[in-house]
TrEMBL record:
This is MAGE homology domain. It holds the Pfam family MAGE. Residues 63-232 form the MAGE domain. One of its GO terms (cellular component) is nucleus. PROSITE patterns: MAGE (PS50838). InterPro entries: MAGE, MAGE_WH1, MAGE_WH2, MHD_dom.
Amino acid sequence: MPFRSEMKEDGEEEGQSVNIENTGKSATVLCVQYLMSKHMKGKNLIKKEDLTKTVFKGRVIGKNNYDRVMEDVSNTLKNIFGFSLSYIKDDGKQFMIVNNIEPINDPEVHYSFSESSKYRTLIELITCALVMLQSEISEGQMWNILERYSNEHNLDMNMIKKVVRIDLVKDQYLQYKATDDSNIMLDPEKTTHWFSLGPRALVECNQIMLLKRVGELYNMPPESFKRVYAVVHKKHQVIS
């Protein structure tokens, strides 16, 4: 049977509600279930159009109603699951779920990693390299960077390439694009694809904190990296 959602059409009297063809769950719960299901299957971008077609069965709803439900959804994701909604553009037509939980740096806490999940630690290393360079990295240069890391941590280089080129790209941490001939001439490896930060990395990564950690590693203040420091702080001011 259709359920009585807490959503009301613009201009409806208080106490009236919209019928949405689904089981007796609120619009907020249905949206959260849909978003979490999409997130668990693959960390891809989620379209507003797909959400409304699936949850609201294509029903035209007022903007105020939609915004109100999505605000509840955002609060639920944050307070219960530790995630947040991040909109790709100001028009709100595409968004993704990002990790809202700080990593636990406690020596008493131990994690059990699967064979594939331990390669996910590459995210921070690659993000750091891209932030510090403030430019794209060619595929050949990327493998050169990760070759040493694989030797030091006894990781399989073929598995690294799979995780980086497929998994991290699919999950929106990296973008993997073909390059034009002019860029190939700049690359000593003469590779045809380059990596750059994906939308998820741009949202989840605190570039200011990352720069501070790099400074601590080299025993230098973040301001020492003048070009990177200026760019990172400019981006932070725009976001703020």
